[in-house]
Specification:
The complex is a heterotrimer of chains A (749), B (87) and C (170). Chain A is built from 20 helices and 30 strands. Chain A is of the alpha+beta class and 749 residues long. In chain A, strand 25 and strand 26 form a beta hairpin. The longest helix of chain A has 27 residues. In chain B, a hairpin with a 2-residue loop joins strand 5 and strand 6. In chain B, the strands form two sheets. Chain B has a five-stranded mixed β-sheet with strand order 2-1-7-5-6, with helices on one face. In chain C, 36% of the residues lie in helices and 15% in strands. In chain C, a hairpin with a 2-residue loop joins strand 1 and strand 2. Chain C is globular and about 50 Å long. At the A-B interface, strand 4, strand 11 and helix 10 of A face helix 2, strand 6 and strand 7 of B.
Chain lengths: 749, 87, 170
Amino acid sequence: MATTPYRVIGTRPVRHDGADKVTGKAVYTADFKLPGLQAGFILRSPHPHAKILSIDTSAAEATAGVSAVVTGADFPNVKNKIAHLGEGSVNLAHLSANCMAKDKVLYKGHAVAAVSATNAHIAEEAAAKIIVEYEMLPSVTDIIEAMATDAPLLHADLFTDDLGLKADTASNVAVHLHFEKGDVATGFEQADVVVEAEFKTATVHQGYIEPHAIVADYNEDGRVRLWTSTQGSFTCRQQTAEILQIGVGDVLVTPCEIGGGFGGKIAVYLEPTAAILSKKSGRPVSIRMPRTDVFEATGPTPASFMRVKVGAKNDGTLLAGEAWIAYDAGAFPSGVIGPGCMCVFSCYDIEHAVVDGYDVCVNKPHTKAYRAPGATQVAFAMEQLMDELAEQLNICPLEIRMKNAVKEGSRRVDGPVYPQIGFVECLEALRDSDHWNSPLEGDNRGRGIAGGFWFGCGLKSSAACSVNADGTINLLEGSTDIGGSRASLAMQLAETLGIESSDINPMVGDTDSVGYTDVTGGSRVTFATGLAAYEAGRDLQSQMKVRAAELWECETSEVSIGDDGTFSGNGKTAGFKDLASQLFSGGAALVGRATVAPECPTNGFGAHIVDVEVDPDTGKVTILRYTVIQDAGKAIHPSYVEGQLQGGAVQGIGWALNEEYFFNDDDQMTNASFLDYRMPTMLDVPMIDTIIVETGNADHPYGVRGVGEPPIIPPPPAIGNAIYNATQTRMRELPMSPPKVWLAMQSSD
Amino acid sequence: MATIFIPAQLRELTAGIEHLEMDVHNVRDVINQLEQRFPSIRDRLCQQDQISPSLQVSIDSVITSRGMIAKIQPDSEVHFIPAIAGG
Amino acid sequence: MTTATKKIHVTTTVNGESVEFLCEPRNSLLEVLRDTLGLTGCKEGCNNGNCGACTVIINKRPVNSCLVLGVEAEGAEIETVEGIADARGLHPIQDCFLEGAALQCGICTPGFLVSAKALLEKKPGASEETIRFDLSGNLCRCTGYDKIVRAIQEADKQLSASTDDSKTND
């Protein structure tokens, strides 16, 4: 066994919130009740694009049991203002209009009115009595059609932004991005082999099992209290305050347990509506979103159309890359195209490259982040082209990746240079893995590999640790816990202080009780909030040094702290808990605190191997074996790192093989249920093997990198490569569902 | 001297110059000196007196949250890149 | 109130205790359990029988409580996630989920625990294939299922070992 300098980090303790979650006691938003709680229901547009001519709510208001009815007219006018939401930014007017349409609906499922009543059935029945008069408008859901000059316009005031320069005429293209590195024309001239192809990916949903939910109480003192399911209580507070046009201090957000998010629970949907219903009714109001509405009106992540071209020398060295990428923004401009452009070539050193990206509004729900937002789509194109190059050059797919893999000093197409990163180490671990070294036998079977990258961010985090009389700690932190982060934060604090993870009671604070903390997203919590927990521990230790010196009647400078957290001075020693309880009996209580804003990306890389079998009669792809390799920097709780890799990979498998929004000829989504939107079940996947690579990270005391996002990226191209290996059929469209694979196999015969 | 990289979309304003050396101490210096050399470039990078919300500034591959007052070292590399939405 | 009708009196057994409640004919068992009886451990993920988050055991069979009417509970024996642990502590299936990190966000966990308990009682020694088949009605979006399957296999081992022990003690 390798020796480790750590006592707690790298172990696998039971998570602190575990018992609550296996006994049904954990309180999610839908479980939270207040006296007199009303149930809300939102009426949504059946049309993808229409003007709202009038809304008659009188019959709904007259219904017995109804306490309030709200329409867009009840929402304050919000100016076109860009608000920073921690990671990413949003136009507040769009955010408000997405919560409740004012004069126009832009997609089927767009909210047009809301009702609160004594129970959800009455609210739903009353909502059905609201008469909305629409004037139908032509609609568009296809990205390329929406870019045409004669396409139906979603926003008359949308002019393409070309890095600060606005186009003269309105269009559905919100943003054009352009990156250049080197001289791409020369690069392609010098290339011995060039591959080029078009790729398409479908709209997919984050698919969290807990639907959005909210309890809002517009209190008589003017404060709005929200209990909600959010990835960021502070960004929820800000968005709600901005839409309601009240101060952030007038909103209190208490994050309940959150049943999954994956990027889809950062924007607000229900909060402002519930708050206004509560204000009008004088009662607390709860809204639980039906699953159909979750599909039709929240998330999803963009569909894409991409044309990518890559050139290489005969020895496999990449010389030039060119990418033209269009993402579907949904009803309002989205931000996902930026990272898409920045990630298309992010795994490989390419001397000459050019990327153009377009953010295109269509009559679909407003697209949002989904685990490494924008990176999965482009990887589906680039990682398959890598295999096509390898085949033409007769080089092993792993070798061509090793040869061109980015490393410290490599420059991305958008400019910045990588610091120490672990992609090469991941590929080496892949090369040495049992999976890669086990031959794959049998008809219609194939193996594929692919790499993936996500930036990972720092942002703001806060933590405080209060010392109890017995030396145990209450850790208050601001990151809502989606997948076990209370454990990973407590473990880092325990390591810092020289106590056990079980000596710490971690708690996610509400927005009144804990310092500002950005979203649980960007793979940042274990990294940045972990840093805050570490710094809070250090703050506590430095206070305790001063107090120990008083206790031991010596100078503070004479007190030292050992690697195991033991305090020594003036011939005396005491472990943390011992000293803490001695100090508790005299003098003020001890509270350590920290607030941090690390700015360095954590640069997460991974590489996946998959074996598939393709049924030649049906086109059905079965995953036979799967291995995820990823650089975690340092795994704090290896079980939960493995869990992130496994869960991300299976989401990627779903994206690759089955998940897709279907629209009918009238541009209405037709598969808004878990039956028809086909996420992987337990029966669809095998065990997912994991190999955690640990290259450390100089920007974190324990070497943590973010791990949550990269594992969703490689599955679609890895599976595409495996299908090709099995069938000699190249799939250029997601999902690679049985009908599409079968058809592609027929045409390539 | 710090190296300032011009985003490809703004190179029409810099006669194709991709990067240039500047004696600057913070991001505000960069914007001011760029504007002096390449008039109207400020409007493309900034809104009012802040970096445009659709952009972020990378200084030596670190994404600064300090906007105009972010410090720049003499050997730093500065890039303007799109803001990233995370999941 | 257009469709409200007279409420119906129902007598049933939940987690071994006799329970009475009044419900409208249209109320699902899920609504009754959560809103009337306060048993919020079973979760609503889809309300149309596709996610399994609301799974409860009725007369030894795991069912989606969103697809059962409250009135159908008359005379039934219902087990929910709240009834899995007892005064002696957690059930092995709960312990194994915790030790094996078989949950992340936890919203699907009650449904999985209930389904797994029903499976292991009926088919001790179930193969991985059987576990995956029988629990394919429970969706999890966080874990990729690997650790859930392993936790169920481990619980199965522990349960059969304790059954063997009790036989030896006899």
